[in-house]
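Risk register update: the risk of archive-format incompatibility is retired. Evidence:
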Amino acid sequence: MHDFVYVTKASTKPVKNELYQIIHEVQDIVRPNFTFQPRPVGSSSRNMITYDRKSNIGFDFDFDFEINDDDENYSAEEIRHIMKNAIDQVAPWYGYKHCEDSTRVLTIKKVNTYTSKILHSCDLALVYNCGNGRQQYIRFNKQNQNYTWEFQGKGFKNLDNKITWLKQNKYWGELQDYYIYKKNINDNPNKHSRSIFAESINEMYQKKHG
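Archived output:
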């Protein structure tokens, strides 16, 4: 069992402001190629950021970078590399490590070099919204070493509508408790917060709404 608790908004606000500074500088670097719109997602968008008191891993943020390349001038691999190189130019100046390139996201981490403790991290997904609630993301297939646009799983569809229904029907506090529970029992280190958040919403909505 983990020991996840919620982080106060006062604690996360300066970090979030710093991340937006990094993002704005990255936008300037990639602008000759394409633009993107940053959007906090998952628990980051709902003031439900957590950290595990039993671990040396601090709290984490999740952002979608909505890529504007409607003419498809760049391949998925080119977009991912352009974004990674731009982030790697900026993030270290703010004390972050270079990007980690995982299957679904690019991750930057700020680490205390004396204690090796991860103070906080940020997962960045490169996405394209197709309409009708569908979204694609750039997936890194490590086995084949290639990058492709893939549709998000159905579990990520219509989350905003489900959140609105849960809030309107006074289930938000119960959802917050359930999300912490789900994080505490998760034993898959490769499952990111945004996936657990989506699972929590879908399961709570199905239970209450039917």
